[in-house]
Amino acid sequence: MRRVFAFLPRLFAGESVRTHLRDREARLAHMALHDQETGLGNRLSLERLASGPGRTYVILLCVDRFEVVRNAIGYDSMARLLVTLGHRLSALSGGAPVARIGGGTLGLVFSSDSDGSAVALAAGLCEAAHAPVILNGAPVDIALTAGVARAGELNQSVPSPVDRASIALDQARATRRRAAAFDADRYGDPAGNLSLVSEIMAAMDNNELVLAYQPKYDFRTERISGVEALMRWTHPRRGCVSPDLFVGMAEETGHIRPLTEWVIRRAIADQKILAAAGHALTVSVNVSGRLLSDESFAEFALAEVAASAADLCFEITETAVMDNPELALRIIARFAEAGIAVSLDDYGAGLSSLTYLKQIRADELKIDKSFILGLDQSSRDALLVKSTIDLAHSLGLKVTAEGVETPTALALLRGMGCDLAQGYLIGRPVPLAALTEQLAGPTVDTSLARQA
Length: 452
Description:
Elements: H1 2-33, H2 43-50, E1 56-63, H3 66-73, H4 75-92, E2 99-102, E3 105-111, H5 115-128, E4 133-135, E5 138-140, E6 144-150, H6 161-174, E7 179-181, H7 184-187, H8 190-205, E8 209-218, E9 223-235, E10 239-241, H9 243-253, H10 256-276, E11 282-286, H11 295-308, E12 312-317, H12 325-337, E13 341-347, H13 354-359, E14 364-367, H14 369-372, H15 379-394, E15 398-401, H16 407-416, E16 420-421, H17 432-440, H18 446-449
Helix pairs in contact: 3-4, 8-9, 10-11, 11-12
């Protein structure tokens, strides 16, 4: 009996060790599947969820301007914001677990019957989660962008559905959409694209790059009053390279400044040719938001315009000023003072912040084509377009409607008091010689344009 009692302490000690080991294993397993900063699931947990049966989609949702928001509220508050946002997204998606992939990106898995419905659901989550998060009694405004990818889809270049959703997130940002599905065609061939980066600069010297001009129709004068300069690249081996591809690559690789400088010089030279032919047109050039934080680019642009007395308009997106608002607004003001018109491009496709609309010294607002293409079929789109035109006019801005493709849309816009129209009905982007020919003839069938 004495030997039995002597064994008991060792028995309990062994059980304590086993319990300690089980607890330690459980903690390690939890750490392996959870983000240490927020307690939410991590990438590994999301990948495990995505490996389940059924038509499963991965959605990644990223806080717009994450670093700006984090620097404003601090790291601890940002972690709390992400936890609150994760719980909100989980509640909105029927209790689905939410993981933090990194930075300001959260992810979840859900079932859907098609890419289209998955994107619609993702956009709905972005919209529903848009309400401010209350931290320390103060509201913090947030906006989300989403990328969606089907989990069971085979893709050799991007095997992970989480990686595909991350690429879709980048594609949504690049096209200023709230949500987008992974587009394999647009992603293209990464290895080939890498070699393309080194060829962008040579393309300018080898005359592979040209400008195509899309006309803008003035309702008041019933004439073409301006054109938008758009880059086109005919590669000696690849043929026509998509502007979405090479302009996006130029943005990401630091080539966007020399590319834009080339466009400005070429546009000024072409404008002189047009003027000599009797066509005094404003030429619009797209300027990346990255360049609105580059004062030396501003100096270049101001010097080029001053030396040539060119009539240029710089088109910027409504989100372009958000990375460095103070500097961007100052540069835009300098452009305005020098007589360079500023146009807010694709209005309505991004955040449509009234605060920035009030602060930016713009001359023109361009309504995104997504609102114009269905203008003759959607009373909601018509209401939004009319209210946007009225708002812009109250702020002293002209309004250009993009994506005008039918006489009905043109007639509706005329009735709404729109100032300018741009789209395939008016004219497709064409080289300078073809534009000169077009300007010599009738611009648009105004009898059709007047039909309601």
